[in-house]
Amino acid sequence: MIRDPELLDQLIDTISRFVRERLIPNEARLAEEDAVPAELLEEMKEMGLFGLSIPEEYGGLGLTMEEEALVAMEIGKTSPAFRSVFGTNNGIGAQGILIDGTPEQKAKYVPRLATGELLSSFCLTEPDAGSDAASLRTTAVRDGDHYVLNGTKRFITNGPEADVFTVMARTDPSNKGAGGITAFIVEGDTPGLKRGPADNKMGQKGAHTCDIIFEDCRVPAENIIGGVEGKGFKTAMKVLDRGRLHISAVCVGVAERLVEESLNYAIERKQFGVPLAEHQLVQAMLADSKTEAYAGRAMVLDAARRKDAGENVSTLASCCKLFCAEMVGRVADRAVQVHGGAGYMAEYAVERFYRDVRLFRIYEGTTQIQQVVIARNMVREVS
Ligand SMILES: Cc1cc2nc3c(=O)[nH]c(=O)nc-3n(C[C@H](O)[C@H](O)[C@H](O)COP(=O)(O)OP(=O)(O)OC[C@H]3O[C@@H](n4cnc5c(N)ncnc54)[C@H](O)[C@@H]3O)c2cc1C
User: Which atom of ligand 1 is nearest to the CA of 92?
Assistant: First the structure.
């Protein structure tokens, strides 16, 4: 749902200019320094990017899902690591508190998350619990008015820098499934919370992940999200529904950027006396990528509109994540192919994007897990 088309156009124009004039020229620097330059972080905060999907009453922009998808597609046109920092704040970092938090929890954390004063992370994955997240082993044992957390969380985005963590831990050891899991808000400076060294990743340099280790970490009982034990896995799944649509929109944006890079190169470079773009086999690659990016855009916007209309889009969000993450992988592969040897060289953006987009098929639920979710929901609906 688009509330005010004129206002949204202005926002998208501003973001588009920021992407073109500030982020794209700094892509190589982001990768070399493995960090988002401090001045760009400040500009992102001033533009309100840290609070895109946080309601206006908490100081965010309060975008609807459709509006957020359109914005994420625009932001997708540059290195995904730029988005990762604030996207995690708006998304998996803050949404748990927003969706299921108590009014006090929302008032305490969300306004500062919306401005970027606080950076947040989402801690679900563990060394032995990835796709099978409900089998997680981190424990939270009640001790007076606190819970004592022990366990390790793996590959946590924003982990090295985050001020606030949403942590899924098992409060009921007799329940080994989803019902024994509770979500906690854990502040980054809580004694007993330790951060492992930053992971050395294949791509998306500038976005950081690390282990988050809890060793007798005492967390106030009032920090249970929503105040009730046993609801944490449901909270995590609700967070991921929105996150999957957001990531799908980013995949569409990246695919559109790669189509543009491929087309420009194919028009400029000549072989056999004519531009590459005049060879029909190159045209086929350009056309396939354009078509797939368009299909991704259409499906994400449809699912987003349905979510705004109050429909349960769990299946459709997985369909979008499945298609768009795989689609952008194919588009990136063709982009390298259209560039020939140059596409294998680090000075061309497509080489970096090729590595960056690989992640989309893995995190926030792998492609296979999306397939499992879609088919399981299909079967459930008929029985
Ligand atoms: C850069 C990065 C950032 C991340 N950020 C976060 C974060 O901020 N917070 C967080 O909690 N997690 C995060 N993750 C973790 C991510 O969500 C997991 O890596 C992902 O869910 C897969 O889990 P796994 O790595 O344990 O793989 P596994 O679950 O071990 O899967 C390995 C393979 O087996 C397949 N497989 C597993 N089960 C099935 C099945 N039932 N049917 C068919 N195939 C199956 C998978 O699809 C995959 O191909 C991040 C990961 C990365 C790499």
Answer: 8
Which amino acid residue places its CA nearest to atom 32 of ligand 1? Answer: 131
Ligand 1: which atom is nearest the Cα of residue 168? 11
DSSP summary character for residue 144: T
311 catalytic? Reply is no
State how far the Cα of 119 lies from the Cα of 221, in Å rounded to an integer: 22
Give the tokens for residue 296. Answer: 């991704």
- Residue 195 pairs with which residues in a beta bridge? 212
For ligand 1, pick from 164, 214, 363 the residue to mutate: most ligand atoms within 8 Å of CB.
363
**pLDDT truncated to tens, each residue of the chain (383 aa)?**
888 999 999 999 999 999 999 999 999 999 999 999 999 999 999 999 999 889 999 999 999 999 999 999 999 999 999 998 888 888 888 899 999 999 999 999 999 999 999 999 999 999 999 999 999 999 999 999 999 999 999 999 999 999 999 999 999 999 999 999 999 999 999 999 999 999 999 999 999 999 999 999 999 999 999 999 999 999 999 888 889 999 999 999 999 999 999 999 999 999 999 999 999 999 999 999 999 999 999 999 999 999 999 999 999 999 999 999 999 999 999 999 999 999 999 999 999 999 999 999 999 999 999 999 999 999 999 98
Atom of ligand 1 nearest to the CA of 158: 8
CB 152 within 8 A of CB 126: yes
Ligand 1 center to 362 CA (angstroms): 6
Instruction: Looking at the chain, list the stretches that DSSP marks H as alpha helix, in order from N- to C-terminal side.
Output: 5-18, 27-33, 38-46, 65-75, 80-88, 95-100, 103-115, 232-268, 280-308, 314-339, 349-356, 367-382
How many alpha carbons lie under 13 Å from residue 238 in its C-beta half-sphere? 14
Q: 362: Cβ below 6 Å to ligand 1?
A: yes
Q: How far is the CA of 130 from the centre of ligand 1 (A)?
A: 5
Question: To the nearest 10°, the Cα dihedral for 276, 277, 283, 289?
Answer: 100
